[in-house]
Design brief:
By secondary structure, the chain is mainly β. The chain has 3 domains: about 1-25 and about 90-130, Urease metallochaperone UreE, N-terminal domain (HSP40/DNAj peptide-binding domain), CATH 2.60.260.20; about 40-80, no CATH class; about 140-215, Sandwich (HSP40/DNAj peptide-binding domain). Helix content is about 5%, strand content about 40%. It contains 2 helices and 14 strands; from the N terminus they run αββββββββββαββββ. The protein has helices at about 1-5, 155-160, and strands at about 10-20, 35, 45-55, 55-65, 70-75, 90-100, 110, 125-130, 140, 145-150, 160-165, 170-175, 185-195, 205-215. Strand 3 (about 45-55) and strand 4 form a beta hairpin. The protein is elongated. Keywords: Metal-binding, Repeat, Zinc, Zinc-finger.
Length: about 230
């Protein structure tokens, strides 16, 4: 949650398949040397039959394991030395991920065309879904923040002052007025101290504080003279 309040930029290591350009048209080997896979007869899939018992059988269609669904194969001596006839290579790259202030859980960051590549197919996207870790003090609801504060009965009746360390490290001095008696579980709010509102510089939600009042124990005055 702290990073969603402050914003951050980080590098993400990504590993994906890219097409090999060692041979023209991503053939994966020399021109004219490919042949239909003998296992699937060039269709890329195989039909298999499974016995289920009691005389029942099930017919299934699976990707051909011999050609990996390509339907064709290339002799080993004629394969591309870079991709070994697979037509794709595994490439590692760094993606710069920018977490903007005020982003919400479930919000997506999309890197178009940075996904796996295959010959003749448009590259996919890399999509990052934002998910924040729970905070020990603050809970987020939309653009607002909620927290609890324990105070004594005397502070609830007479007013008090305390410090809140915010998500960006700032210290907020909160003062309750003596004529504003705080009841158990009452809530007070501080405007613009909630989560930043995305695309609205300087704007923020509300920081709501729920007061938990600690009452004295029963018979906390042991001597009868203390009651006089």
């Amino acid at each position: 949650m702290m990073l969603l309040y402050r914003s951050m930029t980080d590098d993400l290591k990504s590993s994906c398949s890219v097409t090999s350009y060692y041979y023209k048209d991503n053939r994966g080997g020399k021109e004219g040397v490919s042949y239909d896979c003998h296992e699937c007869r060039g269709v890329g899939v195989k039909n298999i039959i499974r016995k289920l018992g009691s005389g029942l059988i099930q017919q299934m269609q699976i990707q051909c394991p011999d050609c990996n669904g390509a339907g064709t194969k290339i002799p080993e001596k004629d394969r591309c030395k870079t991709c070994r006839g697979e037509k794709t290579l595994t490439e590692k790259k760094m993606l710069e991920v920018v977490i903007q202030r005020g982003m919400h859980d479930g919000q997506k960051i999309c890197f178009r065309g940075e996904g796996d590549q295959e010959p003749g197919v448009e590259p996919g996207d890399v999509i990052i879904v934002v998910q924040s870790k729970p905070h020990d003090i603050f809970q987020r609801q939309g653009d607002n923040l909620f927290m609890q504060k324990k105070i004594s009965l005397s502070d609830a009746l007479c007013g008090c002052q305390f410090i809140i360390k915010h998500l960006d490290g700032r210290e907020l001095i909160v003062t309750t007025r003596p004529n504003d008696i705080l009841e158990p579980d009452c809530i007070r709010g501080i405007r613009n101290e909630g989560m930043p509102i995305a695309d609205s510089p300087g704007a923020g939600g509300v920081l709501f504080i729920k007061f938990k009042i600690e009452f004295p124990e029963d018979n906390f005055l042991k001597d009868e003279n203390d009651y006089k």
